[in-house]
Design goal:
heterodimer; A: 292 residues; alpha+beta; 3 domains; B: 426 residues; two-stranded antiparallel sheet; 10 strands; 14% strand
């Protein structure tokens, strides 16, 4: 046993190894595919079981799984099968996933990240701040160089990257976060004030979230818009889209397109193109599911 | 540059000291220390804040130059330079109360001719004293100054630290008889200065009636023995010197008289009753008694962590995670590390002590130690879509958690790891 000069030759993965998540995923995938699931083309973490009688979805987020399906007996059998191969803990109905609280309501589900917002406000000492009802000030313009002094770049980055994760349930702050992220490499006092204003807005709207409603309509609708040369620094445009499935928002993005206004025809189409690309990614999955 | 040229022309080699080596510059360093320490003593004695250091240091240089020194055979530097003795009558106590003649600055004939100032040293270029008005913070350079050298207009602050203030305050108490006359003089001096009366047209800062009520601020402590009474905790000095307690009573009258103009309420502070100052802030939340160790040697001292490490190691052995082999020659083994965590139940009580052995994956190099990485992270839009579909269809959602997901999967690449430290000990 005592061989002080020897080293360990690993046969199995342990925590910290670069290949550990991949090995885990391939083992899990092998098992799931053996159960009759197919891997979605839209996202490799989504597995679909689709037969004439049963439809079942399985989502994988590292070591968290969400399973849902038309037949509860089938779902239970899948859970049992997986439990044989892996050491599983059945958490019961979905209530907390990726820091997002899932609250069942009478007509659907409410997704809220209020705990996460509270943590951000705690970390930034903004719990006692005065609340505001809008995300950004309409009077101050955000520019890369505005003549004010620079601020602590590390803190700015850590707060903003924390806010980016909030986009899981908060499309309302998307534009503000995207706008402020454009100054991440060189934040000034004005930008920091805007971040603090955003935090004050979040304090005001800490319990806001996404409500997923039960409805029977499955039409997919996408709205897009772009501001014309809204960026003061290089006159590029910011484009955005939001996508609804029935009455529920499922996907949204706000993005600096990087296009200059001398390409006017492209201006509004570009986000639409982005969206179509995304949708083409979804299409196989919808086709699989026999909805489109 | 000019100096260098001069040296060059006259054939002088310029030797300098080595940077960051003050030892080679002994004379200047010693002078510097003399000035700084004298200046700090002046500041402290005058109860002035540290921001007034330029005045104190200037004064200390002024005083040092006029002091006889053994180096010059008991002559002062001033005398040896100018061959005439300095005027010692001119010297006054730094930080004392003084009244410069401010009449030239007055806008009105009936304004007071002087206001209480603090003495801040001597002018460098003129034969004048530098005095700062206590209210307006304006600095007057004047030759016509009335000095009350035994009084300090700036009170010492008892709130700084108890030890400091009591040590400082013990100084004036040593000579209480000296301090008895000045309060009387002080009362009479501003009274005579302000006897010319007031007119409602005057700006409030200039009228004596309003300038005087500010005095109680420092009046209470300008009476030196008064300040120990401000101490929240009775000091032994106060009890030993019966004089010090009896002293303030006659002099305290003008201050109480002045305050009684504004309100007749008797406050605790008038009766010298003070709440003891809290010096140490004890945290409301005690530090959690269990500290997660950061290294193996710490953890091994504690049987709890020792057993946690043992459990982890036996689990790894049971799964036959590794073989001990001689070190390979073609590659460097990756490091490893113990991570210790206290797992708590939702109510905060300790669930269990967990020790986990992790590999230092950042030692691995892409292409050599591993070829591909992948993290099964789902897109947020997909999560919402699946949730939406399940809602619309009325399906139930179930969540599963995999324990030790990354453990015990077959490894395809050849990876060598340094032996964990505890392995040798266990």
């Amino acid at each position: 046993m005592l061989k002080p000069n020897h080293v360990c030759r690993l046969h199995k993965t342990i925590y910290g190894l670069k290949q550990a998540p991949r090995e885990w995923y391939s083992a899990l995938k092998e098992k799931i595919l053996a159960l009759g699931f197919t891997n979605s083309k839209a996202d490799s973490s989504l597995f679909i079981y689709n037969t004439a009688f049963v439809l079942c979805f399985l989502l994988v987020y590292v070591d968290d799984l969400i399973i849902t399906g038309s037949d509860t007996v089938f779902v239970s059998s899948i859970v049992d099968h997986l439990g044989v191969a892996f050491s599983l803990k059945d958490m019961g109905p979905l209530h907390f996933f990726l820091g997002m609280e899932v609250i069942p309501t009478t007509d659907g589900l409410f997704l809220s990240q209020h705990k996460y917002i509270h943590d951000i406000l705690c970390k930034t000492n903004m719990l006692g701040a005065k609340e505001v009802s809008t995300t950004l000030s309409t009077t101050t313009t955000l520019q890369l160089i505005d003549g004010t002094s620079s601020v602590d770049i590390t803190e700015f980055r850590s707060v903003l990257s924390g806010l980016q994760y909030l986009s899981l349930t908060r499309p309302d702050i998307l534009f503000a976060v995207n706008k402020l992220s454009q100054f991440m490499h060189k934040p000034t006092t004005t930008h920091w004030t805007a971040v603090k204003r955003l935090l004050r807005y979040l304090k005001h709207t800490i319990y806001h979230g996404i409500h997923i409603q039960k409805s029977c309509r499955f039409n997919l609708m996408t709205y897009t818009n772009a501001d014309w040369a809204g960026n003061y620094d290089d006159r590029s445009s910011t484009s955005a889209y939001i996508c609804f499935l029935g009455s529920n928002q499922i996907s949204w993005i706000s993005k600096n397109s990087g296009l200059l206004p001398d390409h006017p025809p492209k201006r509004n189409i570009e986000p639409l193109q982005m969206q179509l690309l995304k949708l083409s990614g979804y299409c196989p999955y919808f086709r699989n599911s026999a909805y489109l | 540059m000019a100096l260098k040229n001069y040296f060059y022309i006259h054939g002088i080699n310029h030797y300098t000291t080595v940077p960051h080596t003050p030892q080679q510059n002994g004379v200047a360093e010693r002078r510097h220390r003399h000035i700084v320490e004298t200046g700090l003593a002046l500041l402290k004695d005058a109860n002035l804040p540290l921001s007034y250091w330029p005045y104190a240091f200037q004064t200390s240089v002024y005083l040092i130059n006029r002091h006889p020194t053994t180096l010059l055979h008991h002559k002062s530097p001033f005398k040896s330079l100018f061959n005439q003795p300095p005027n010692y009558l001119k010297l006054k106590k730094f930080g004392c109360l003084c009244f410069p003649l401010t009449r030239p600055y007055n806008t009105h004939k009936l304004q007071p001719k002087a206001s209480p100032c603090v003495f801040l040293g001597y002018s460098q270029t003129q034969t004048a004293y530098r005095c700062m008005d206590l209210q307006t913070k304006r600095i007057y350079l004047s030759w016509h100054v009335l000095f009350h050298e035994t009084q300090k207009p700036i009170p010492s602050f008892p709130a700084v630290t108890l030890v400091n203030s009591s040590a400082l305050l013990s100084l004036p108490i040593v000579s209480p008889p000296l301090q008895q006359p000045p309060p009387v003089r002080m009362d009479s001096a501003p009274a005579s200065a302000s006897s010319s009366g007031t007119s409602p047209n005057f700006s409030s800062s200039d009228s004596p009636n309003s300038s005087f009520p500010v005095l109680p601020d420092f009046q209470t402590s300008s009476l030196p023995p008064c300040s120990p009474i401000h101490l929240p905790i009775p000091s032994p000095l106060q009890t030993s010197h019966s004089q010090s307690t009896s002293l303030p009573t006659p002099t305290a009258h003008p201050s109480t008289d002045n305050t009684s103009h504004t309100h007749s309420m008797i406050t605790c502070s008038m009766n010298n009753i003070y709440k003891p100052k809290q010096l140490h802030f004890v945290s409301k939340h005690p530090i959690p008694p269990i500290i997660e160790p950061t290294c193996v040697s710490q953890a091994l001292c504690d049987p709890k962590w020792r057993s946690a490490m043992f459990d982890e190691l036996t689990a790894l052995m049971r799964h036959h995670t590794w073989d001990l082999v001689p070190p390979p020659t073609h590659c460097k083994p990756v490091g490893c590390k113990w991570v210790f965590r206290v797992k708590r139940k939702p109510d905060g009580s300790v669930d269990r002590f967990k020790a986990r052995l992790v590999a230092k994956g950042f030692h691995q190099r892409p292409g050599l130690d591993y070829k591909e990485t992948f993290s099964p992270v789902v897109k947020l839009a997909i999560i919402r879509t699946v949730l939406t579909i399940s809602m619309m269809k009325g399906w139930s959602l179930r969540q599963l958690d995999v324990n030790n997901a990354f453990l015990h999967e077959k490894l395809r690449e050849m990876v060598y790891m340094i032996q964990p430290l505890a392995l040798k000990i266990c």
